């Protein structure tokens, strides 16, 4: 293996790589890794919030089943309001936690 590496280093390269190839490749990989980390962090935060809501509902269920049915009927009659509120809340959270961090990082490097 060592002889093969030595032979490859002694020969002239068959393909010429542009001077900024490594810098561009590194920049693309950094963006992809940063974007992936932001999405994962956002997913973790959403899962934590969903878990906390689930714990609250379970505690509420075990404390009073009668109150839970009252809450269910209220949620069923006003589901549009809660759906719109959740979508707007998720959009704001995504914009704050992911998109703005990505834009700040992107324009910080310029």
Tell how many strands the DSSP assignment holds: 0
Classify the beta-strand content into a percent band.
Answer: under 5%
Q: Rg from C-alpha positions?
A: 26 Å
Helix count, per DSSP?
4
User: Which residues form runs of ≥5 with pLDDT under 50?
Assistant: none
In N-to-C order, the SSE pattern is HHHH
SS class: mainly alpha
How would a textbook summarize the main sheet? none
Distance between the termini: 42 Å
Gross geometry: elongated
Q: What's the rounded overall pLDDT mean? A: 87
Indicate the percent of residues in helices. over 70%
- The structural domain count equals 1
What does this entry look like structurally?
The structure is a single chain. By secondary structure, the protein is mostly helical. It has one domain (19-108). It is built from 4 helices and no strands. Helix 2 (21-63) packs antiparallel against helix 4 (79-108). It is elongated, with a radius of gyration of 26 Å. The model has no long low-confidence stretch (mean pLDDT 87).
């Amino acid at each position: 293996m060592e002889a093969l590496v030595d032979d490859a280093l002694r020969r002239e390269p068959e393909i010429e790589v542009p001077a900024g190839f490594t810098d561009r490749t590194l920049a693309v990989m950094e963006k992809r890794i940063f974007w992936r980390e932001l999405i994962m962090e956002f997913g973790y935060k959403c899962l934590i919030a969903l878990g906390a809501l689930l714990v609250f509902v379970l505690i509420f269920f075990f404390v009073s089943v009668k109150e839970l049915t009252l809450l269910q009927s209220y949620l069923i009659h006003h589901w549009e309001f809660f759906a719109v509120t959740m979508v707007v809340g998720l959009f704001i959270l995504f914009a704050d936690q992911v998109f703005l961090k990505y834009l700040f990082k992107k324009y910080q490097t310029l």
